[in-house]
Design goal:
Chain lengths: 114, 111
């Protein structure tokens, strides 16, 4: 079945350092990958999405490139900010005759320290 | 308005008692979802409505029920709560694009 793997459960960084959160996936169907971010006491919100192989997608300073050859969609940012501290979910979207489903990875909690 | 509203935000229930959680959206989205979120775990899809069609995940099929009386509302019903049901329940809606709009969640504590 479809699955999403985020290898790091917790990432702690110093402000200004680069961010990389890993995401790999397994699916037999069309590939739409998403990153959702959840700040404390807030609902998860869409951060990035992509279905195009080898094309970089960017939003709010974050970027990710879908690589179908390696089944990866890693989230990156060149310089972490304190406000980036949040829970990040990689998710795989599938749409078939039964409807559309989003399968989440385990999540990575990013903590950025001064 | 891209808000998904959930009620109640906090629910305390006794073991064996029923629980009903409500979700609403005004974006005319055709799909509404219910996820269960426990600490340090990924959100787990319980069920979703695509228009009037209910899809329940195989491993939670018998534990949760739902109704969608109209496009805007969707409920999650637990007939007899057990301790293992304690979790955050997230409702979301989507226009079938993969972009889900989440509510702030309903935190259920079963004692």
């Amino acid at each position: 079945g479809d699955s999403v793997t985020q290898t790091e459960g917790l990432v702690t960084l110093t402000e200004g350092l680069p961010v990389m959160l890993n995401c790999t996936y397994q699916t037999a169907y069309s590939t739409f990958l998403f990153w959702y971010v959840q700040h404390l006491n807030e609902a998860p919100k869409l951060l990035l999405k992509s279905s195009t192989d080898n094309k970089r997608t960017e939003h709010q300073g974050f970027h990710a490139t879908l690589h179908k050859s390696s089944s990866s969609f890693h989230l990156q940012k060149s310089s972490a900010q304190l406000s980036d501290s949040a829970l990040y979910y990689c998710a795989l979207f599938m749409n078939n005759n039964a409807g559309a489903k989003l399968t989440f990875g385990g999540g990575t909690r990013l903590t950025v320290r001064p | 308005d891209t808000t998904v509203k959930q009620n109640p935000r906090y629910k305390l229930a006794r073991v064996g008692k029923p629980v009903n959680l409500i979700c609403s959206q005004t974006m005319n989205h055709d799909t509404m979802y219910w996820y269960q979120k426990k600490p340090n775990q990924a959100p787990k899809l319980l069920l979703f409505y695509y228009d009037k069609i209910l899809n329940r995940e195989a491993d939670t099929f018998e534990k949760f029920q739902s109704s969608r009386p109209n496009n805007s509302f969707c409920s999650l019903y637990i007939g007899s709560a057990g301790l293992e049901y304690s979790a955050m329940y997230l409702c979301a809606s989507s226009a079938n694009t993969g972009q889900l709009y989440f509510g702030e969640g309903s935190k259920l504590t079963v004692l």
